[in-house]
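Dear support,

I submitted the protein below through the web form. The confirmation email said the job was done, but the results page showed an empty box. After a refresh the structure appeared. I'm attaching both so you can tell me whether what I see now is the final result or a partial one.
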Amino acid sequence: MKILITGARGQLGTQIINIIKQKRSELGDIPNSVANSEVIGIDIQELDITNLSDTRSYLNDIKPDVVINCAAYTNVDACESNEDIAFRVNAIGPRNLAVVCEELGAKLIHVSTDYVFSGFGTKALKEYDLTGPVSVYGKTKLAGEEFVKQFSSKYFIVRTAWLYGYNGKNFVYTMMKLGKDKEYINVVNDQRGNPTNAEDLAHHLLNLIETEEYGTYHCTGAGECSWYDFAKKIMELSEIDCEVRPCTSEEFASPTKRPEFSSLDNMMLRLTIGDHMRNWEDALQIFIQNIEK
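What the results page shows now:
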């Protein structure tokens, strides 16, 4: 099996490659065909997926069996002022991959986000619930999902949220750095969701590869919390003496409207390959223990 990973230098792409090299994740073994596959990791330096001609040429040379698309324009605030760039990367890029994967008969795993929902509910969202993004980032990611559905017949769209991993920038590293530098920090307490360890997400993506359980999935850590709860738990587990104070989204003053409630229900996972995502607190504890080693 030949697996092509786009956005391979990001925290999720890096995690996927590391798990394949180790032939197992923190959650357990991965399928033998995946563990013994040929993996090609690329980023913008090797291929601009927003260019259809280049994408077709590159994939035709490699002829992958599976493409895992981790490439995205994820700077949520920057998306508001760079809508064309956001649409090119988050929508046209996945469209191009879907078109060429269909031509090659390859499977496509496309990583999406909780931002495709409005965030106005109070009950964990299932895959069939109505979307309604309120930000440019969410709207462009939803457009990418629609293109994948339109142009690919062998797709897995996997929505995740509040992702952190060993490589790159994320909320956990930011909180730990701020906690060491400051006596207290203010963190919003009116947005709720599911912290997700990239190790857990990568494990499930790799277990989907062998199957034909095509469709749209939610894949987030078990349990929900606010960003304030998340930050408090980070300080506690890393034993950093920094007070975390709750504040409102309005006080935080962001140019982007973020979902107030975007907790996801991993229903599709439960009913197909199984939902083995760890509780968010347990996964965070292991993560902090590992980085402190």
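Response: this is the final, complete result; the empty box was a page-load delay. The longest helix spans residues 83-104.
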